[in-house]
Amino acid sequence: MIRDFNLIVTTRRGSEADAAVELKYILVELGDEEVIVEESGIKGLIVAKTSMKPEEAIKKLREYLKKHPEEFMHIKRVIPIEKVVKTRLEEIREAAAKLAHKIAEHESFRVTLEKRFTDLHSMDIIRSAAEKISRKVNLEAPDKILLVQVLGGVTGLSVIRPEQILHVDKEKEKLAREQRGA
After folding, report:
1. Which residues contact 6 (CB under 8 A, 6 or more apart)?
2. CATH T-level assignment (fold) for domain 83-160
3. Longest dimension (CA), the chain
4. How far apart are CA 164 and CA 56, in angstroms?
5. C-alpha pair distances (Å), 161 with each of 34, 38, 79, 152, 165
6. pTM for the whole thing?
7. For 70-103, how does the pLDDT look when each residue is reduced to its tens digit (9 = 90+)?
8. CATH entry 3.30.1300 includes domain 7-82+163-181
């Protein structure tokens, strides 16, 4: 698995290879000739390294989805990743501290954790990630999310706005509602 991925993509278990081909095709269509897409070794997950910034990739994928929803058959969610570290509490703490500048002083945040194949306890990971961030916590409606994605021995982190995760099925439903109402 590539260690410096900047996108995590979810799919149905058993559809990882199809989702990888689909994602690579779409990103190449969007002009990224250097994209690397690999299965993660975790059922239902693939990772990608795109030459675009992850938030730009999400924006372009969302625009492409609006024009070509039929092209998204296997991809379920696309999650932007800004930093990848080894799954150690100290490395997670330091990476989160380096991303904290993306949360303005007046903004609130929450930590959202998804973990796979680790014995670390969720609260230990969340405490480590949030430890050096002196901003207001809002679990219900935060301005920003400190996203922590544990994939066994590696962990991806990002500071994003809630809408910066691409939820393909939700977007398709929204498009269908708009078309019916138009």
Report:
1. 48, 49, 50, 53, 54, 57, 80, 81, 82
2. VC0802-like (3.30.2130)
3. 52
4. 10
5. 27, 26, 12, 25, 8
6. 0.93
7. 999 999 999 999 999 999 999 999 999 999 999 9
8. no
